Amino acid sequence: MSFLSDTIAALATPVGTSAFAVVRVSGSRVAELIGAIFRTTPLPRVARHADYRAIRGELIDDVLFTYFVGPNSFTGEDSLEISCHGNPFIAQKILEDLFSRGCVPAEAGEFSKRAFLNGRMALSEAEAIMDLIHARSERALAAANQQLRGSLERKMNELIAILVNILANIEAYIDFPDEDLPSEDRQLILSQLDQLLVGTRQLLATSHYGELLRDGIKTIIVGEPNAGKSSLLNRLVGRERALVSPEPGTTRDYLEERIILGPHWLRLIDTAGLNPTPGVIEQQGIAKTFEQAGAADLFLWVIDSTRATPALPEILARRMTSTNTILVYNKTDLRPAGAEVGGDRFSVVRISALQGTGLEALQHEVTRLAEAFQTKVGDDLIAINARHAHALEQARICLESAQSKIADDIHSELVASDLRGAMEFFGQISGKIDNEKILDQLFAMFCIGK
Fold it and tell me: What is the DSSP letter of 107?
């Protein structure tokens, strides 16, 4: 990253031909640049039309430019956004001119980093920007928007406030043993630690949902050979992704596609048929089916409704439940010969992959099961990422260690060490912990030194 004293510039829109492109500039020299380039005094938050002339005077483009005065800008610094015509050559010429005037090329994420360093957003909110940009479903978009608006930061602030209170209380007895303080109430501290651990575990429980939003809900299509698994995949994907043949056992390896189904993003995986008497190659394909099923979130068990319902292999039966499995009776356009069973254990949908009927009902059932993965903390939809999960897990370990030490009446200095460890890991999520808060709380609580 360049130094904060540098004025940085970069293209803020994707490279390619389009109606317009946006060049973003941030730093202390923005007002000076506006005067030199556009020959005018900048007016904050007013979009103005002007010619963009290079440092040697030649016209590059007619543009709209908007000036934002720090700290009331995205980065917290003086900023400039230049909207030019979306010819990549034009955008590049503008950038080259800005660099010739002393700007520095912005590195990846540098505008967001400056916003964080200048106190415009918490680290978790900066990360939410990336989630917002990469959201592939309505649910992912909703979670990213809530985090961008501080849902995780608010929850972390609540936990940190409790932890500051506990730590201030304990350190008062360590640092000022001769003061006339009330008796140390370790049962109260244990109660507060319980509250902290409940909140920490609630946030940790959102980790899996965060993975689903970012990577997609892993949805496995399983069933006997020639039940119509590949035909269903093709219908859901909307193109001939998998080979379909009357000959059973066409799929020998799994195929994966990502699709939007309702408000959810799915990793849809077509697997090898569960042939009870497989050949050597089929055995390898079935082994991969079992491997994929081990980490599956949802199962679509496709059954040929013209045949009797087959038995599930034990390894799948252990994984498939009423909360993660839809029993999909296929080929309902043909006369069913087998009795439909399993509805008492799984939800049932009847389709014809050949004719495309029943797919709306299937989408409804997939959405219903997928909604159960949502994890709210209070009124907020929170979906932490892997970095948050690691920090929270380490904080949980520290808090449980402190709780154990207090229960065993171990010296307060060792308890405080654990609590400071938890504080450090909490701080890794928001990106900041102000240790002065602990001192302020300490003196406010006990009026030490009066």
Answer: P
